[in-house]
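Could you please review the protein record set out just below?
***
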Amino acid sequence: MTTYEWVIENIDAAKVEGDLTDVAKTVHWRMNAVDGEDTATAYGTVSLDPADADGFVAFDALTKDQVIAWVIDKLDMSEADIQAALTQRIADDRDPPVVQKLPAGW
């Protein structure tokens, strides 16, 4: 059974943006997949929308779930798509779809 884990590697933050401080700007994320001894990882970065004072969340009040939701919102694929790609990568590592070969006698 494959397990998946989100990891927020880092968040780039503007010290000041308008009247706001410590504004999250870019999220560096990773998703790990583990199936037995086999692993696969997806890594990326997403740029966040400009801060809005009405919906602003103070940096120290951010939760991992909130940041992951922002990442998913910005991606061109769903969380399930990322998981499927990682599962396929593990399957391909176990049984590569393309292998190097030469005809006999070469």
